[in-house]
Write a structure and sequence with these properties.
Elements lengths: L1 H12 L1 H6 L4 H29 L1 H21 L3 H10 L1 H18 L5 H9 L1 H10 L1 H32 L18 H30 L5 H26 L9 H17 L6 H27 L5 H30 L1 H28 L2
Helix pairs in contact: 1-4, 1-8, 1-9, 3-4, 3-5, 3-6, 3-14, 4-5, 4-6, 4-9, 6-7, 6-14, 7-11, 7-13, 8-9, 8-11, 10-11, 10-13, 10-14, 10-15, 11-13, 12-13, 12-15, 13-14, 14-15
Length: 369
């Protein structure tokens, strides 16, 4: 999970060096849209590839393609090549959830799937940590191209490990046998994930900038806001996913988590007057909003037929990726037009809408309690 998105984290962490090297700021902003846009578009077919080819084959392919994308970034000679390399990295993003979810279904006992899914989803935050600390340090000594090349080599080493460590893929299913269509629950999760992704991506993209521009924090301290969000995000994903794995309906947790995230966005709004609230807002976004994505994956694993788990996981992921592509530009438009206050209210509205979408599952679980 961490390798599948590390190219975007690296570009963010190495952004100042890339700008110094002549990459326009506008191009850096387009990298997020390119990566997540391609991931969203390819998710519809990536899930079927995983179901037909097997999780191990697709995970190894994911790692090799990610290494190729990173290698292209390290030798990119212009903006277009950089964007094409990041777009290539969208394919590993599209494969990541379908392939890893199928591995969990194949090798993890049902009672442990919730906790394992939480740790699996936390790989995204660990990828951000790797980009922000050790690889950024490598860039001091070897330059940004050297740091990206090192990450490409690491991805290849993990691919070699995966070929030996993961169980063999089962015989391919008969592709002529029609699969059952996705259930209504998958569509609801995809729409929930779209709204969630819009809001989370806006927070991820603009929180540090808000701290520096609006609250007067130094760039280093403003960066700590994202670190706080990341730490609570890991804890939230592991804790809430474990909880989701132990209750009859994992999706019953989504509405309360989205409601908590809405409260966090309101704290960010209020921090314009009481600046200390920004720290509480960042922590609660991580603990609730970021965790909700892991819980949605637990729900998919609980519902899915093993034959179509890749497809169903990909459909839910496509909603999340589409939200990540759409959320930051929309937030930026609102900030430019009206300021940060209304933009944080927009984020609160997106979280609130996600809570409404997930509310029937919560009420249904209460009715059967």
């Amino acid at each position: 999970m961490g390798v599948s998105m590390v190219q975007l984290f690296l570009i963010g962490a190495l952004g100042p060096r890339l700008v110094e090297a002549g990459v326009p700021r506008a191009v850096l902003g387009l990298t997020t849209t390119a990566g997540f846009g391609i991931a969203a578009a390819l998710s519809f077919t990536a899930g079927r590839w995983v179901d037909r080819l097997g999780a191990r084959r697709c995970l190894v392919a994911l790692l090799v393609i990610a290494a190729a994308a990173l290698a292209l970034i390290s030798v990119s000679g212009g903006s277009w090549m950089l964007l094409l390399a990041v777009a290539l990295g969208g394919l590993p993003q599209a494969l990541a959830n379908p392939a890893t979810n199928k591995v969990i279904l194949a090798v993890v006992e049902p009672t442990r799937r919730g906790a394992v899914t939480g740790w699996k989803q936390s790989g995204v935050q660990l990828g951000a940590l790797a980009a922000g600390l050790p690889l950024a340090t490598v860039a001091v000594w070897a330059g940004w191209r050297g740091a990206v090349a090192v990450s490409a080599a690491i991805a290849l080493l993990i691919a070699v490990w995966a070929t030996r460590a993961l169980p063999p893929d089962p015989a391919r299913a008969d592709s002529r046998r029609p699969a059952a269509p996705p259930g209504r629950g998958v569509a609801v999760l995809a729409f929930f994930s779209f709204l969630l992704g819009c809001a989370i991506a806006a927070v991820n993209t603009y929180l540090s900038l808000y701290g520096a521009q609006r609250l007067g924090l130094s760039p280093v301290v403003a960066g700590w806001l994202v670190a706080v969000l990341g730490v609570t995000g890991v804890a939230g994903r592991v804790g809430w996913a474990r909880r989701a794995g132990r209750i009859p309906r994992a999706d019953a947790l989504l509405a309360p988590l989205a409601a908590g995230a809405c409260a966090a966005a309101l704290l960010l709004f209020a921090s314009g007057n009481v600046s200390l609230l920004v720290w509480a807002g960042a922590a609660v976004v991580g603990a609730f909003a970021v965790a909700a994505n892991a819980v949605s994956m637990v729900a998919v694993i609980r519902w899915a037929d093993p034959r179509t788990a890749g497809r169903d996981s990909a459909l839910v992921s496509s909603g999340f990726f589409a939200g990540f592509a759409a959320g930051p530009p929309l937030f930026g438009i609102v900030v430019d037009a009206t300021g940060y206050g209304p933009a944080w209210l927009l984020v609160a509205g997106e979280f609130a809408a996600a809570a409404v979408v997930a509310a029937p599952a919560w009420f249904g679980s209460r009715a059967h309690a």
